[in-house]
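REQUEST FORM: STRUCTURE PREDICTION
Request ID: SP-0412
Submitted by: Lab K.M.
Chain count: 1
Length (residues): 93
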Amino acid sequence: MNTPKKEKKQDASKAYYEARLGGASVDELLQGAKRYAKFIKATHTFSAMASNWLDDSRWSDEYDMTPHQQANSRGGFVASQSNSSFDDSDIPF
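STATUS: Completed
RESULT:
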C-alpha cells in the first residue's frame, strides 16, 4: 500500500500557499488530490512528495488509470490487478 509521504512539510506548505496565490482554488486542489490518489491506487505507482506535486501544478493533470504492467519471474509482463471498487470514501480527506 502506498501511503502519503510525510517529508518536507514546510516545502509543501510553501508550495500550497504559492498555488493558492497563483489562482488555484481549495476545491481544485482537493479534487486534483483525489484524482491523484485514485491514480496511485489504480496503477500501484509511487506517490510524489506533496511539495513536488504542488510545485508542478499536478492538480490539473489528467491521470491514465490503466494499470501498469509488472514483470514476472520469467521476464514477461502481467497486468496489475486494480481495485475497481475504489471510490472517494477510500480517500482520508
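NOTES: The longest helix spans residues 26-43.
Reviewed by: T.R.
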